[in-house]
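User: I'm putting together notes for a lab meeting next week and I want to include a structural view of one of the chains we've been expressing. I don't have a solved structure, so I'd like a prediction I can at least talk through. The sequence is below, exactly as it appears in our construct file.
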Amino acid sequence: MIEDEKMPFSGHLEELRKRLVICFIAIAIGFIISYGFKEKIFHYLTIPLISAMQADDKLIFTGLPEAFFTYLKVSLLSGLMLSAPVILYQFWLFVAPGLYGKERKLLVPIVFLSSFFFIGGALFGYFIVFPFGFKFFLGFATETIRPLPSMREYLSFSSMLLLAFGLVFELPLVIIFLARLGIVTVEFLKKNRKYAILLFFVVAAILTPPDVVTQIMMAFPLMLLYEISIIGARVFGKKKSQKIDNDV
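Assistant: Thanks for the context. Below is the predicted structure for the 248-residue chain, given as structure tokens.
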């Protein structure tokens, strides 16, 4: 561990309070900065939907305070993203004293890779899935039926989807972690590859419009991530010799 002396429980609480205060200050600063650019941030978030809509169609707000509260939520989400490095750093400062050297070396790449995969999944959803999905949903419009998406509805829908895709792209890290614990093996992953592929297409059918092209565009990255997971499990997974030693 970094510190040989044990900190009393009250000391841990004081340290936690200090780190939380810094995190809240960072979020508040990020929120204030983001609120100054709230319209631009929301505009960039709505580009996939606006591009799929008719030229004269626009988003609406159905209640007097809806636009205001939507901009507040946008600023808060943006502030959280801006303050994420500070939050992660404060988390590191809080847990690092209780970790051994080997654990500290593992924590840094895990945080980096999890952030990388999460951002990659969100970008994939934004640039690939959103355009096809919105065109599909807007395709139900007719001469007598006109879509009128609201600001609040779109923010809720898009943010949840971005979060979902970000979490789905954490698949390699989850599998590598399970392999490291010895719960899954490379042989198990290879043997059940066909079931995993079937599951990916089921997920793609649920999350994307019901046409083959978009389902493949959704399922293919998941299949690629699964193959990356197998490679990662082979490199970082628990070896048979380690399992035998643990059993003994």
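A couple of points you could mention at the meeting. The chain is about 80% helix and 0% strand. The longest helix spans residues 101-138.

User: Perfect, that's what I needed.
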